[in-house]
From TrEMBL:
Phylogenetic classification of the source organism: Bacteria, Bacillati, Actinomycetota, Actinomycetes, Geodermatophilales
Domain EAL per the UniProt entry, residue ranges: 24-279
Full-length numbering of the shown residues: 603 to 895 of 900
Regions of compositional bias (Pro residues) in chain numbering: 278-289
Protein name per its UniProtKB record: Diguanylate cyclase (GGDEF) domain-containing protein
Region of interest (Disordered), ranges: 275-293
Length: 293
């Protein structure tokens, strides 16, 4: 009896596992098909200057509608990351985001004295350890014609700490002229002191610190901002939802902020509308009224 029972459980386990594997394979195939067939699109969340409120740049965020139902990136990115499919996903995003910023640049001009807006793209740790990553970034820059310094690659801190291959690739990417940002800073195990040796330009403080009501956490944010500035890094606060959070970040000297309080991630058209149209070519002077045509 016991034996029979045990075998039954094993069969159920096999069946569950088999279904999970099948579902995963199906999702992978659906992601690949969406990349080819137009089921993926990007939204762009503005990043603003904390001090003046001016637009600083955008972060490209991937959106997938599977048979009309939106699937959040937190659900499908991990599936893509389980195989080299994530490299295809990231490459698609790199091409689309750089093409979009280049297109906006062609018909807009930043206000006098304002820097040109940047485009940040998330690069998965798995892609960063893949040897194709440098060619993928270089390829997107070449195809779009975007100046490299306007592209920011967001990577998580874990990959920066302990992967020598990823570090080599990062050095090669920086040599291309692109900027590197540490995403979700504070959620990994990086200490403030380690920031000094990190091959990065920007630090993004994770939303969980920005929104925390705990005074200790707030003090930590102030400390991280000061340390980052000492090491020459730019600081972006993620997930700002309340005016008080923005005010505190201003007092703490944070450079840039991103969050629902400022802007939600926007479809391309709405994001592009935040940029100033290029001065139109001068029109011929209007004829004085009454002059013959
Ligand atoms: P992330 O890179 O840290 O992106 C920020 C996430 O926070 C985005 O979620 C954004 O919509 C959300 N967010 C922004 N402001 C607020 C706010 O004020 N409150 C709250 N509650 N959330 C806010 P999203 O778009 O769902 O993306 C989740 C994660 O998926 C991203 O985290 C990133 O790790 C990954 N991801 C998104 N797009 C891509 C992509 O193109 N490639 C790769 N490799 N990963 C991506
Ligand atoms: Mg990000
Ligand atoms: Mg983040
Ligand atoms: Mg995050």
């Amino acid at each position: 009896r016991a034996k029979q029972h045990g075998r039954g459980r094993a069969e159920i386990f096999d069946e569950t596992l088999r279904r999970q594997l099948a579902a995963r394979a199906e999702t992978e195939a659906a992601i690949a098909a969406a990349l080819d067939g137009g089921g993926m699109r990007l939204v762009y969340q503005p990043v603003v200057d904390v001090a003046g409120g001016r637009l600083h740049g955008f972060e490209a965020l991937l959106r997938w509608e599977r048979d009309g139902v939106p699937v959040p990136p937190d659900q499908f990115i991990p599936v893509a990351e389980a195989s080299s499919l994530i490299c295809d996903v990231d490459r698609w995003v790199l091409h689309e985001a750089t093409r979009q910023l280049a297109a906006w640049r062609a018909r807009t001009t930043p206000p006098p004295g304002a820097p040109e807006p940047t485009m940040a793209v998330n690069v998965s740790g798995r892609h960063l350890t893949d040897r194709r990553v440098v060619a993928d970034v270089a390829g997107a820059l070449a195809a779009s014609g975007l100046p490299p310094h306007l592209l920011v690659l967001e990577v998580t801190e874990t990959v920066l700490v302990d992967d020598p291959v990823a570090l080599t690739h990062l050095a090669e990417l920086r040599a291309l002229g692109v900027a590197i940002a540490i995403d979700d800073f504070g959620t990994g195990y990086t200490s403030i002191g380690q920031l000094r040796q990190m091959p990065v330009d920007t630090l993004k403080i994770d939303r969980s610190f920005v929104t925390s009501p705990d005074p200790g956490q707030r003090e930590l944010v102030a400390l991280v901002i000061r340390a980052a500035h000492t090491f020459g890094l730019d600081v972006v606060a993620e997930g700002v939802e309340e005016p008080e959070q923005l005010e505190r970040l201003r007092e703490q000297g944070c450079d840039h902020a991103q969050g629902y309080l400022l802007h939600r991630p926007l479809p391309a058209e709405a994001a592009g509308a935040l940029l100033r149209p290029a001065t139109p070519p001068a029109l011929p002077a209007p004829r004085p009224a009454g002059t013959p045509q």
